[in-house]
Fold this sequence. Notes:
alpha+beta; two-stranded antiparallel ribbon; single chain
Amino acid sequence: MKRFVPALRHLALSGLAVMTVSALIPTAFAQQVDNPAFPGGNTSWPNADGRNVFTHYSANMTFEKRLDFKLGEALFQRLWVTAPTRTKTADGLGPLFNSRACNGCHIRNGRGHPVDVNNPEEGATSMLLRLSIPPQTAGQLRDHLDGEIAAIPEPVYGGQFQDFSVPGIHAEGRVKVTYQNINIDLAGGETVTLQQPDYQMTDLAYGPLHPDVMVSPRLAPPMIGLGLLEAIPDELLLARADPQDADGDGISGRVNHVWDIAKGQLAIGRFGWKAGMPSLDQQNQNAFQFDVGLSTPLYPDGSGDCTSAQTACLNAPNGNDPEFENLEAHSQVTDLVLYYTRNLAPPVRTNADDADVVAGQKIFDSIGCASCHTPRYQLPERRDMTEQSGQVIWPYSDLLLHDMGEGLADHRPEAQASGREWRTPPLWGLGLAKQIDPRAGFLHDGRARTILEAVLWHGGEAEPARHSVTMLPPSERRKLLAFLKSL
């Protein structure tokens, strides 16, 4: 393991994603920032220009820690290769996978994009399909109810559909999507066309899917501010929860309780589209295992998501190496990636004081959007998370599960989340999505091409707010959208 760090340092200090340090240093903040124009508090990056706006480190990071950030970035961008190779620190890809690198899905750390209907052979390059079935045995039912299993994997294709594979192994198939148009009339004469997606898995290499398979498409989410979300205390999330709608406002957000592998117990989920992960480290390692096919300290299986029905996949060589904890992405890798993903800074909002933006925020509050999209948190002091410690942040999320109606339902439970529930996604950086990648989509599967389309898909608990948006005069609706695009 000793030779791994020098190799990484050489990689980070080479031409790979490294600029001159002086070009990266922002002006330090003298005091704690409590201003919605600085969504990440003192971590907020001061320059919101360009396609790389989500790639900067926390603005309050010390000079000494920036190398760790760049090392983590190098690993986040690493293209993993098939085992065995002479480059032991970079092999172990697959055998089944969705991407060869973390940033293959999280393009410039922004939102993913849906499958291209005009180029299906490209594959689901920045989204994936989660698979599961209802519990089939008393033991599966018990483990699911106890929380140790969030979902029962499909018996042949596993917990995730992988449409790429290493040489000699068949990929599981192809992902195809078609859309049905739905027209929505708005006050003032405007009509918006929504796209209702239908997903199919074709060219199945390992036989038919289970007849009761449940499928959930998932778009790669933006990566900014994740450490700040992790630093929100559980007590604040629980204080926002109202599972029985005791106050009668029609909003019944609740926490998802999920299995924390490192602690061996249930914990509050806060990451993922259904709040299915309790920590950023587990979220990262789960992605290494299922998206890239790499073993990690929490997921040590060198075969990734291969199932017992995929014998060639199970018998393929892997990169587990005794020199590196008998893993492919060992603890030094996962620790550096954790530091990197914790410290991707939300950018400063450049037009937060614009008159239309301020008016749009008032509309956002008045029609009830802030009931789920909680604007502000005061974070506690954290000695273990220096950059996030004590910050005042503006993520616009309660991180709770909400019933979003039948239109967005995937009908696939995950831990305690139902098939109609989704975690409130943070809104910081929302208006920069298309700047980073013009193909970026909104909502959990990218069906919404615009922010307005995403709003109009809201149902369930958000139906009253959605209806209010449809009834706004066009000038007021433009102000609301101006506010959302300013985030």
